[in-house]
Amino acid sequence: MYTNAAGATTSPVTLPRLLQARDEGRRITMLTCYDAGFARAIDAAGVDSVLVGDSLGMVVQGHGSTLPVTVADIEYHTACVARGLQRALLLSDMPFQSDATPAAAIDAATRFLRAGAAMVKIEGAGFKLDVIRHLVERETPVCAHLGLTPQSVLRLGGYRVQGRGDEAAARLLDDARAVEQAGASMLVLECVPAPLAERITASLSIPTIGIGAGPGCTGQVLVLHDMLGLRHGRQPRFVKDVLATGGSVTGAFEAFVREVGEGAFPGPEHGYA
Ligand code: KIV
Asked: Which atom of ligand 1 is nearest to the CA of 66?
């Protein structure tokens, strides 16, 4: 048991408990995090889940993409964040090529689970379906990630909205069903038109966590640096500077929990048509 910033006593968020949120009509909150200090504050604000994202390559290490991030990087930051959490569920991102084969994926994922993660996140479908199956059969919960998958930046030629047009939308819907069938427990949808994200959410029984996917997902994730206004370069429309609303860093985390919970964020203006 744990007492949060509002003085409420809560127990740790387990995967079954998180997954119940969808049935209970409660929206799931998730923030990325890379160190123990921010983890403590995010946890105390009552955020449900924390992702050690490979976005750390860009926002912490200063690279131009997520591709240089290694298994050792994610393992190190997972251990740091785990030391700051008492309540929130911790996810670790599978970095570029760490999930290229089922054998490599189980090695990397085991390092993350040993460092404190309760789930790993994998970008893509296709051959990744075998990887997802392999991990789930070996007691490693998986969150899938579709839509804009930043590890595909070389093929995509940039970071842009995915699933536009009938063919692309149908492919994305098929992929979403396939990752669920392969055993994924959750699905991050990044930069997907809001009506498509809503359709995907309605056609799955696992929760969807949106980022640039409109208000129709089960939950919402933001990159920590983005929501604190620390973005380098142009701010995408799905980012809200919650620091301005919350008035302080801890206030920003509380405002994020409140606004996502009440359905005030994301609004239609934070999504794509
Ligand atoms: O790496 C990351 O931070 C992510 C989120 C944007 C979902 O994958």
From this structure: 1
Q: Tell me if 219 CB under 6 Å of ligand 1.
A: no
Domain assignment of residue 245, given as a range: 2-270
The whole-number mean pLDDT for each consecutive block of 10 residues of the chain, a chain of 273 residues, reads 59 91 92 98 97 97 97 98 97 98 98 98 98 98 98 94 96 98 98 97 97 96 94 81 88 96 92 89
Backbone phi, psi, residue 72, to 5°: -65, -40
Whether ligand 1 lies within 6 angstroms of the CB of 69 is answered as no
Of 120, 132, 114, 58, the closest CA to residue 89 belongs to: 120
**Residues with catalytic annotation?**
190
Six token digits for residue 48: 């449900």
Structurally, the chain folds into a number of domains equal to 1
Distances (CA, A) of 102 to 109, 137, 167, 262: 10, 11, 29, 39
Q: Tokens 């604190």 sit at which residue? A: 228
Cβ(209) – ligand 1 distance below 6 Å: no
**Best probe residue, ligand 1, of 49, 50, 51, 189 (max atoms within 8 Å of C-beta):** 51
Instruction: Give the CATH number for residue 92.
Output: 3.20.20.60
- Quote the ligand 1 centre to 150 CA distance (angstroms): 8
